[in-house]
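Human: Here is a favour to ask of a fellow structure person. Comparing notes only helps if you start from a blank page. Give me a protein, with the fold worked out from its sequence. Please set it down just below, with no commentary around it:

Assistant:
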Amino acid sequence: MRIFPQFVIAVFFCALASAPAWTQELKCSPCSHNFGKVPVGDSSSYSIQITNTGDKKVTIESKSKRGAAFSFGDFPLPLKLDPGASVQLPINFKPIAKGTTDGVFELVSTARDERLTMDVSGVGESGPNAQLGISPSSLNFGNVTVGSSVTQVATLTASNAAVTISNDRVNSPEFAILHLKLPITIPEGQSLTVTIQFTPSSSGTDSAKAGFISNAVDSPTIEPVTGTGVAQDAHSVSLSWNTVETAVGYNVYRSNAKSGPFQEVNSSLDASTNYTDYTVVDGDTYYYATTAVNAEGTESSYSNVAKAVIPNQ
């Protein structure tokens, strides 16, 4: 009769000895959150309670998230939680486009289940009567030689509220919106300039639309654009000159008179010692000179003047 109680006690002590390793836990409350509707460009914050429900200290070692519209608040790591202790995990939702979006926050710790994941969602919606205006109302690039490029500038202005542009597009490969890093928010009452480029690939007129997608009530904001590609002239002038040892590049100048005034015709410093001018007009006479530019940016005086007579077509 005495053996039985000793056996029970022995098993009981074994169970107590192994229990701490299995009661170590890290829990979230709640483990999912819906931010609801938030205007694009605005943000909403929330805190999730993280608790160590075990009887051993837990260290939160790293954090990560999925979803561009979501971010962590101030939550420095590593962070140690004593048994029974809690900490608030701040999270943010800042929609960059209209519509529903989902995300995941994850903590990695020394707890038995080392990965703790929390699901989040939210809806981006238009701001309060936010509007995005554009000026001028249209762009005409005029005649542009096939293969060359011309740029013009348009101005986008936010009114009634801040406007966040999430995407842009042009429905013709001959036009492009340059150097606009998205998403970008324009504060209420302020403006942003954008550069649009026209590069005709063939002769003829091309009309297109440059569009800017945003949280404004009038999205997308459309800029009609048009331009005409013209074939290169049948004549051109090829120039060459001697190398200047101290030069890092050369400029090419042209005039309709030998005495000038001369106008620079190259768009940037030319590192070579030759240049072809495709912009000549049939029947005209041109005079050319070059200058050398050294590493300090000092430009020499004009070279001797060369004459070119363009025949009639």
In short: Confidence is low (pLDDT under 50) at residues 1-22.
